Write the C-alpha cells for this entry.
Amino acid sequence: MAKEKKIPEKLKLWIDARKRFHLSHEQIQMARELGMNPKKFGKLANYKQEPWKAPLPDFIESLYYKRFRKERPDQVKSIERIVKDRNRKKEEKKQRKKIEKEDPIPF
C-alpha cells in the first residue's frame, strides 16, 4: 500500500484561504499566477467595512484580466491535484533511478 504524502505548508495556506474566503479553485489559481500572498487576503476581503473595495473574488478576477487579458486560466487544477501530480512525478523519477542503478547501460 502506498504511503500518503503530506501537503506542503506553502500549499496548505492556499487551501485554508480557499475555504476561509469561499474562493473557487479557479480563483485560487488566478491568485497564485498573479503572485498574491494568501496571508494578506484578510486585508483585501473587508469590502463590508470599506464599501469602496470590491469583493475578493471579483478583485482577483479583475486583476487577472488586467494582467493576462483573459477571463480565466487555460487549465484549472486544484491544489490537491497539483500535489498529487508532483508526488506521482517524484515516484516515477525514483523508479527510473532505481532501474538505472540496478541495470547500468554499458558504454
Q: What stands out?
A: The chain has one domain: 9-99. The chain has a mean pLDDT of 93. The longest helix spans residues 79-102. Residues 45 and 90 are 37 Å apart (CA to CA).
